[in-house]
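Review form for a predicted model. The reviewer records the input and the model, then writes brief findings.
Reviewer: anonymous (R2)
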Amino acid sequence: MKVYLTDQINNFKKHLHSLKTSEIMPYDKKRLKEKTTTVELQTNRKLDQLNLDFLFDYQIFPDNIMTFITQWTEENRKMKVGDTIAQQVYIPPTKIFSQKIIFGVRVNEIIDKADRKGFSYETLDGHVEKGVSTFTVEQLDNKLLFKIQTYSTPGNIITKLLGPIFSVPYQTFCTKTALENVKRQIETQ
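Model under review:
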């Protein structure tokens, strides 16, 4: 984790290059807290009729919460397992008067089933959280859902101490905003 007062967008390639050599934070999934949040998608389309390019381009979080650079975009190709994402999180969620925190994640699974599409990633050394997050669009009978499932715990002493009063409420806000952002992108297709 690196903290800046200035936007790091012009340094994203440097941050991505550095994070590509970072290790995944070791974790035991059985010891992590599981949280699943979903939103129902109001559309007449079936899963196989949706354009999910935005999901696989990591356009999940609005850019007032997070900006990013992905390895696959930098290498001009599609996402694959092992790819790194450099994330810049804004705290508070505004680009101008915020701290810019840089950390990374690595794709560990791409899900391409008839009733479930998405991907998951694990956090890299220095991330504020330790664990794995999965982002999927799922077809359940005649219903479509977007789901975020996380298994995580604080990644350092600061987030352990501040978790109950800051980290948990901020993560809840970010998750709710991501659900709304994906819902909007799918429902306007």
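Findings: The mean pLDDT is 94.
Further findings: The longest strand covers residues 99-113.
Recommendation: see findings above.
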